[in-house]
Design a protein that fits this description.
The complex is a heterodimer.
Chain A (H helix, E strand, L loop, with lengths): L7 H13 L9 H5 L19 E13 L2 E13 L2 E5 L6 H8 L9 E9 L2 E2 L5 H7 E4 L10 H12 L6 H14 L3 H4 L12 H14 L4 E5 L7 H14 L4 E5 L3 H7 L2 E6 L2 E7 H6 L4 H11 L1
Parallel strand pairs in A: 3-8, 3-9, 6-7, 7-8
Antiparallel strand pairs in A: 1-2, 1-4, 4-5, 9-10
Helix pairs in contact in A: 1-12, 5-6, 5-8, 6-8, 8-9
Chain B lengths: L9 H10 L5 H37 L10 H9 L13 H32 L2 H14 L4 H19 L2 H6 L11 H25 L3 H8 L5 H12 L1 H17 L2 H6 L23 H7 L7 H29 L10
Helix pairs in contact in B: 2-14, 4-8, 4-11, 5-8, 6-8, 8-11, 9-10, 11-14, 13-14
The chains are: A alpha/beta, B mainly alpha.
């Protein structure tokens, strides 16, 4: 079973080499998928209850560039609550840039420029105050980045900073606990919430980051390869968490791990060199891709 | 030359030739160890020497050395010219110590606050073009010799401040001290200007090293740059702020020339009870006192007194380093490098 679940990033980089050459066996994707590890992990797609989908965000003809060099070329995508959207594609194809632009985090990079519109509930994000926007659209990064504080203070950070009046520890405690429960971390840290966050394991740190993002009750959650630095066990916990959370928040996940995208996503967008090559329901992208490049990429990973 | 060596003076040259071979680790270890031990021995030797020279003054005065046992100016004049065959050691350094604490403390507190804000601006808010000028300028300022600050202080600032003091105020303290432009506040101000660049450079360096993931993560939670700076970056950089403050305190403690020039030149303990006059009162910190009486060193009693002052400064500087080390310890529990 361990051998079926390779550590994602490196393995796929190697696989991608193979996909550059025409992959002969990729036409009939089904056989490979039937034996895919997703089944064995209790996350197999058919078991999943469908939840009503509401469109929360929409990217319209989004063009992003760093110092004039285009990274994302005219991408349009809907983002729905109730459905997880996965962005897949080889390294350096603009997935993360696209993700970061959704809560205007690209603006922290001085050379980055953006064209096109991003709508949150029908409103242009440029018209929202940037801190307000980021409170509604929270983000979890590739490397777990808990702040150098206690577990409690990490989760309470956003609550404290966003409140007009500094809430006391008593008021915060239930909210902090709830966020930790939602992120599936509470049982592990309940004994000592004052434990320094940087002493937690990598998987715990990442779930703490998710708890921190959830504490402020965002409407959209952006996940940038949240599991790439984690072991399979932590990955599984976080994947279950993502599937569970999709009812309450709209989730976009960037991942290099195609099995992961298959397991957690309802919709998949395949990007290649800044272009959105194909977008559709997960089953369609993995079983019956319409684009040649998608077929090569997806087939290479499973083959 | 090398070819004739074996025949002429074989042994010493052979030893020299051996030195030119690549060094073994063992030999490097020995040589480097000897160099470090030499430095260590030098420091220990200096401390012992200073204390032994200072001993007559300390043993004569006891704890009164640190207290207020009369007018220090008169005491030092008597040490210099006792008028008797017996050397006089009577000395109470309270005024000098208070002058040092006041100038150094206020300058460092003010400097730390100012430097932190300046560093935050430099790292986070300054536009790129300004940043490119500011960063090297701050480093350059840190290297300006203190005597230049003293010169500007005494030639430009002191007369200016002196003109601002009203005649009434000068007369109100006539007979005790004279209020001129040279006073502890001016000295402290110049001291602060002197130490701010080095502190700013250290703090800015630390702020730049705060992991991007932390600041970005905080920004992604909808916190503005100013709050991210305070709650994440400055928090993380606290050890550097402490380190900068310690370095600055060390520099301020040992500053002699500039303070001797602008602090007023009389040993006097500025008294906060005096109201506004307090800020205009002269003082003379410890290090400046050594400079002031340098001609008296031929007199063994004066030499011992000055060595006593040096010993106090030495111990203070060491205590500072140890104090900073202790203060930095709690940072480790959050995995902050120190």
């Amino acid at each position: 079973m361990e051998s079926l679940m390779p550590p994602p990033v490196r393995r796929i980089a190697a696989d991608r080499q193979a996909t550059v050459a025409p992959a002969p066996s990729s036409n009939g994707g089904e056989p490979a998928l039937d034996g895919a590890p997703a089944r064995a992990r209790g996350l197999s797609r058919p078991d999943r209850p469908r939840v009503p989908a509401i469109e929360r965000m929409r990217a319209e003809n989004l063009v992003l560039a760093y110092g004039g060099k285009p990274a994302v070329k005219g991408v349009s995508l809907p983002i729905r609550q109730g459905e997880v959207l996965a962005l897949i594609g080889p390294s350096g194809c603009g997935k993360t840039t696209l993700l970061r632009s959704l809560n205007r985090l690209t603006e922290l990079t001085p050379t980055a420029t953006r064209e096109g519109r991003i709508l949150l509930d029908g409103q242009d994000v440029d018209q929202l105050e940037v801190t307000q926007l980021r409170r509604r659209i929270s983000m979890v990064f590739q490397q777990p980045n808990p702040f150098p504080m206690s577990v409690f203070d990490n989760v309470a950070y956003a609550l404290r900073e966003q409140g007009k009046k500094r809430p006391g520890k008593k008021e915060l405690a239930p909210q902090v606990e709830e966020a930790l429960v939602r992120a599936g971390l509470f049982d592990e840290v309940r004994a000592d919430l004052q434990h320094p966050a940087l002493r937690l394991s990598g998987g715990q740190q990442q779930r703490l980051c998710i708890a921190r993002a959830l504490a402020a009750r965002p409407e959209v959650l952006l996940l940038d390869e949240p599991c790439s630095a984690l072991d399979p066990k932590s990955t599984e916990v976080i994947e279950e968490l993502i599937v569970r959370l999709r009812e309450e928040v709209a989730i976009v996940i960037v991942t290099h791990n195609l099995q992961q995208a298959y397991r957690v996503a309802d919709n998949v967008a395949f990007m290649y060199l800044g272009d959105l090559v194909e977008y559709g329901p997960t089953d369609q992208i993995f079983h019956a891709p319409t684009q040649h490049r998608t077929r090569e990429y997806v087939g290479g990973a499973f083959g | 030359m090398a070819t004739s060596a074996p025949t002429a003076t074989g042994r010493p040259l052979a030893a020299l030739a051996r030195l030119r071979e690549p060094w073994t680790d063992r030999r490097a270890e020995l040589v480097l160890g000897a160099v470090s031990c030499f430095v260590l021995a030098l420091i220990v030797g200096m401390v012992v020497f200073v204390f032994s020279k200072a001993w007559p003054s300390f043993s004569h005065n006891g704890l009164g050395w640190f207290g207020d046992t009369g007018n220090v100016n008169q005491q030092m004049d008597r040490i210099q010219q006792p008028g008797t065959a017996e050397p006089v050691y009577d000395f109470g350094a309270f005024d000098l110590i208070w002058g040092t604490v006041l100038t150094t403390g206020v300058a460092v507190l003010f400097g730390a606050a100012f430097s932190t804000l300046a560093a935050i601006f430099m790292v986070e808010f300054a536009p790129e073009s300004l940043r490119r000028i500011l960063t090297p300028t701050v480093s350059l300022l840190a290297a300006v010799p203190s005597v230049i600050y003293g010169l500007i202080g005494i030639l430009v600032l002191a007369p200016f401040v002196g003109d601002l003091i009203s005649q009434d105020r000068k007369e109100s303290v006539a007979g005790v001290i004279s209020l001129t432009g040279e006073n502890w506040l001016l000295a402290t101000f110049i001291l602060a200007v002197m130490i701010i660049p080095i502190m700013t450079a250290i703090i800015a360096q630390a702020l730049r090293q705060v992991p991007r993931g932390w600041t970005e993560g905080a920004a992604a939670l909808g916190v503005n740059r100013w709050r991210v700076m305070w709650t994440i970056s400055v928090r993380t950089a606290r050890p550097a702020i402490v380190a900068g403050a310690v370095l600055a305190t060390g520099r301020a403690l040992g500053e002699a020339i500039m303070l001797a020039m602008v602090s007023g030149g009389t040993a006097f303990a500025p008294n906060p009870v005096d109201g506004l006059t307090f800020f205009l009162e002269p003082t003379r910190p410890l290090a400046a006192t050594i400079v002031f009486y340098r001609e008296g060193l031929a007199n063994p009693a004066m030499a011992s007194t000055l060595y006593g002052i040096a010993a106090v400064l030495l111990v203070s500087a060491m205590a500072l380093s140890i104090g900073a080390y202790v203060v930095k310890q709690p940072m480790k529990k959050y995995g902050i490098r120190t």
